[in-house]
Each structure stands twice: as structure tokens, then as C-alpha cells.
Amino acid sequence: MLMGCSSDELMLALSTHKIQAGKDSIAKKLTLQQAIDSRDALAKFIYGSLFDWIVEQINKSLEVGKQCTGRSINILDIYGFESFKKNSFEQFCINYANERLQQHFNRHLFKLEQEEYELDGVDWTRVEFEDNEECLNLIEKKPLGVLSLLDEESNFPKATDLTFANKLKQHLGSNSCFKGERGRAFSIRHYAGEVPYDTNGFLEKNRDPLQTDIIQLLSSCTCQVLQLFASKMLKPSPKPAASSQPGALDTQKQSVGTKFKGQLFKLMHQLENTRPHFIRCIKPNSKQLPGIYEEDLVLQQFRCCGVLEIVRISRSGYPTRMTHQEFAGRYGVLLSEKQLSQDPLSISVAVLQQFNVLPEMYQVGYTKLYLRSGQLAALEDRRKQVLQGIIRLQKCFRGYQARSRFRELCNGVITLQSFARGENTRRRHASLGKSCSAVAPEIPDEQLREIICLQSAIRGWLVRKQLKMHKLKQSNPVNAKVKRRSGRKSSDMKDVPQEQVQALPTALAELQRRVLKAEATLGQKEEENTALREQLQQYDAKWLEYEAKMKSMEEMWQKQMASLQMSLAAARKSLASDNTPGEPGRLDASTAPHLYDSEDTMSMGSRTPGGSTPMKFLNIVPDAGSGRESNGSLTAVNHLTKEFEQRRQNFDDDAKALIEIKTTQPASTVHPDVELRKLKMRFETWKKDYKTRLREAKVRLNKLGQSEVEKTRRKWWEKISSRVQ
């Protein structure tokens, strides 16, 4: 159904084979195994042809609208090396392809690399590696190679897989990479290890028979793709002798091994024309499971693939290579001094020495300069800086050239325009003159004279006006006075001697100079007066600010003084109440906290000005007995009250004097900030001392009250105890 043919025709093509005998054809029935092989050959042919057709269609679709530039990046993903318990013809072909690609790998990374060092005279110690050239000769050498012997046996009609194995052991037994086994088996020592092969099916898979009956069946199918495949197989051979004979298609058919070898050589030829980069895939374990790492297996792969030798060559090799001409042409501009010798080798060595490249980091060959990795970074950075400087210089020079050309072009355009405008003006003037000469005879002579007189009068008035304005600009008030005086006394000037008349201009010049000097001085004084007025306004603003501050301080002092006065009044009241006959010397408990709160209120207020040395008072020592102690405490409180009133009066007077100082002293000698700071310091010092003495008085009063209470308690206890007794 998929092929588009009848099942009977397909069954007949797979089970019989037509043999041409002269003009007659004989149909030979195939055995079951031969029919199975024929079926498999048909399936392989359809699969391979379909794969090639799909690739061709994809390439055609990608080539639409694109030009072939000759530059491309190709990725070759090869199948890994295979070694199973039973290895047949397929594994042999895959391992043969891997051997050829390994030889390509060795050639580029070992042979060509080291040959280039040796041919260019580089000091190099050769690195030994395992070469698989002998294994390749075993497989593809003619006439005694595995593929040659396989094709030879495939052409014999009575050959079997056993005869093929015996022939391999007979001709290749002396080769070190070949090892004969019992029966139909043999082994080949590949670069990745020894692999045993079973020759069972080698000959049939190599022949891959596709009979002409099957090809004709495909050409008669309704599927166009199969018809296309069959038409390619039925194309006449380019050799006329072969195409004229019957059965030429079968005789020209190549074996699978020969086809595979040809395709492999075509691939290698394409790889040789490219610059290869290799990626090695290492199998971590043989169980194909994640998270398992077998060290021996990985190390074996490293050794077989030549990775260790590649690492050794890379560490001791020189990956960066440039010819002397390329290096000198690219980095020769970095030399600070011009070299006498201009040959590329000398320039290259001079550049390396100038940038202090160590001798072990490069090698100078006959034709190339060999550098280790990372040595061109500094040269590239310096070259980039030099090129940027050159570009900036070129930019400035090109700009200068463009501006010069533009100025020349503008000057040429202006000159051309001036010539054109002059020519136009001359033409207009000539035409105007002709028109005036034509109109002039018609005007009477009297009218012409009147016009000329009017024009002369107007021009004279304009000239006199300009002269008068010019003289007014140069004149000054002194000159005007001199002119007025000279006008008034013009009659007297006639009697003045000639010498004085001659000295008059000199005197006038001197007067003018003095007037100019006086005007300059006047302007300078006006500027000074303006500056002084500005300073005066600033001082006025400052005084207003000082007055506001002093008023606020005075209000704050009054509040604090009132608080202190209230505290003292409360203290006196408590002392008066404590000195009653019933309870002498007792201090009310509600009074002492009130006094303490007053002190804290005074200290927590805003900081007010003050400060000179406070008045010193003698420490009040309490006398013996409760009466003396109470009288001493009352005396101390009275002293504090008097001192408070006196200090309050003093600070009020100082504040008023500081406010009124503006009217008593000039602004230049007053320093309000200094005076305010001193007054503030005095007030703070007195306040601290006064608070200390208040606390001492409070402590004395508390002690006095406690002693009186204790005496009362004793008397009460004695009375109670006597009653109990």
C-alpha cells in the first residue's frame, strides 16, 4: 500500500530471481534465507535513498536566495567506538571510520604540529604518541587488506563466511594488529582497544544484493519517490561498452565496504580542506548510569584517545603563530624609536623586547613567530590605544582641511557675488544716467537752481547738527561757563594781551582735567556712601534682632525669678508653720517636694544669659538645739531670699543696659554678641551656685524635721513602756 504496487508482484520479486541466458530469461526460485536477504536489501535501499532525498530537499530549501560565499562552519558528530559481545559487519565499519578520524586527529595535533616546529627551527622536544597507521593499513591496504579480501570473497559464488575467516588468518596472521580466533572469529587491535568480530553474515551484508527485478518493480510503483529512486539506479553508465552488455547494472555494482570506504575518503578530503577543532566525549562508566565515575575507564580513554599527549603538547607548545611580516605589520607601529633595520624579523624582536616579553614565552622561527597563550593581550591593548590616538589626530586634521576648504569656497562665492553685484549696479547706474539725461532738458533752469539750493541748505543743516552734537558730547559745564563768560566779555578780550589769549586754551584744558578728576572722586565717594548705607541697614537689622532676643530673655528671666520667689515664699511659710509651740522645727512634707520641683523647673528651662562670679556667703552652721537649728535654717532662707532679689535686680539692670547701648555708643564700637555671651555666662554660673545652696538648705530642713519626729516618737514610746510596766 505504501509503495503503490500489488502484493503479488512484490511477492514474486522477492522470491524469484531472473537470470538472462542469451535471448531467454530463466526464473530461479530463491531459498527462504535468500528471500529474507532480498527483502532486507530492498528495505535498506529505500531507507538510504529516502534519507539522501530528504537531505537534498533540505539543502535546496536553505539555498534559496543565498549566495555561496565559500565560508561555512560544519559540525561532524561521529558515532562512538563500539565493542559488544558479538560484533558484526556494522561494528567493523563504524570502528574503521573511528580509526580514520583518529588518524586525522593525530595528524593535525601531533604530526603536523611537531613537524611545523621542526621545519621552522624551533627548539622543540618531540612528544611521542601512539600512531594507528598500522591498524589502518591492516583494514584498507591493497591487495591484502580486510576490505580487499572481503570484496574478493564476495565475488566468489561458493565463498562462505568460514572461507573468508580462513583467508584472513592465512594472509594477515603476521600483522601485529590482527589476531585469529577459532572458527569464524578474528580480533583487531584498534587504538581504543582490542575488538573481536564474528564473520557470520559479512559476505551477505557486504554484497547487499538488489536484483534488477526489484528495481523494475520500484519503477512500476505509483509512488513518485520510489520511481525517482529507481530512475537513478537505471541511469545508463558513462561507459558505453559496459552499458551495451546485458546485466551491466549488476556487474558495475559496488560492495557495501567499497562504498563505505569511498564515502569515508570523501569525508576526509573535505575535512582536510578545513581548520579542525576537536571535542572529545569521555564515557564516565560502562554501565551507562548517572552518578557513577569509573577512574580506570576514564584513564584508559584518555590514554587511548591521546588526550594526555595533547595536554603535554599544549602546555609546552606555542598556539599563537604569526609570520614575521604579519607581526611586524600589525605591531610595528608600537615601537618608540625608528629601527635602523627595517626587516620584519628585527622589528618583531624589537617589539617583544620593548614590551618585556620573557624569552621562554616565545620562539623565533625561520618564517614565523611562535607565542604562548596570553602574550598578545598587552600588545593588542597598546595597539588599540595608538590607533585611537591616530584616529583623533586624523579627525582634527580632516576637520581643519574641511574648514579650510569651506572658507576658500565661501571667499570665492563672496568674490563672485561682489563682481556680479557690481556689474548689476553699474548697469542700473548706466540706465539711470541715461534716463536722467533724457529727462533733464525738460526741467527749466530756475527749478534746477531752486532744487540745488534747497539740497545745499538741508545738507548744511545736517552737518551743523552733527557737529553741534559732537561738541556737546565732548564739552562739560566748565567749558559752558567759560564760553558764557567769554561771550559776555568779548569786548574786554580785545584789550587782553596776546600772550594771555594764547595761554587761554592751556588753562581751559587744565580746568577740564580737574573737573574730570573731581567727577571721578565724586563717583567714588558716592559708592562709599552707598556701601556705608548698606552697612548701616545691616546694623539696624542686627539691632532689631538683638532687641527681640533681649526682650525674650527678659521675659524668661522674669518667669524664672517668679518661680524662685515662689519657692522661697513656700520655704518661709513652711518654716513659720514648723516653729509653732506644738511641733517646733518640723518641715511640712508637701513643701520640700515643691521646692525641689521649682529648682528642676528652673534648670529645665531654656538657657538664658548670665555670668559673673556669684556673691559668696558664709556657710550656715546649725547651732546646738532644735531652736538654734530652726533659727539658722530660717536665717539661711532669708539670706537666699535677699540674694535672689538683689541678683534679679542686677540682671534686669544689665539687660536694660544692653538694650539701651545702641543709643549710647556708636555702631562701630559696640559688640553685642560678646556682651550677650558674658551676661549669659554670669547668669548660668550664679544659677548653678544658687541651686546648690538651695539644695543644702533643703537638706538641713529635712534633717531638722526628722530629728523632731524622732524625739516625739521616743517620748511616746517611753510613756507606753511605763504604762506597760
UniProtKB/TrEMBL annotation:
Residues 508-542 form a coiled coil. GO terms for biological process: actin filament organization; actin filament-based movement. Residues 264-286 are annotated as: Actin-binding. SUPFAM superfamilies: P-loop containing nucleoside triphosphate hydrolases (SSF52540). GO terms for cellular component: cytoplasm; membrane; myosin complex. Keywords: Actin-binding, ATP-binding, Calmodulin-binding, Coiled coil, Motor protein, Myosin, Nucleotide-binding, Repeat. This is Myosin motor domain-containing protein. It comes from Citrus x changshan-huyou.
